[in-house]
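Re: the 89-residue chain
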Amino acid sequence: MSESTVKCAHACRNTCAMLAEALREESERVSFYERLQQECNYPDVHDMLLQLIESRSKSVLMINQKLNELSARAAIMDGVISSYERAEA
């Protein structure tokens, strides 16, 4: 993913397209490093790859948590808005 191809739509409501893309990219990196680690039998490189996997996995978790927060926040706001709409009717 090059920085020039990532553009924010600024229209996300209950998710973020950029975070979804980042999640996809990070997940691909984790899979890539896992494949490398399975093939590697050199201890230092194997350990370094394990550190990369752990680091990227933490990033995947962080991005996923933020996407879940955005979704929950949107659901709450939808509930608040719909309660006002029912009160007005």
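DSSP finds two helices and no strands in the chain.
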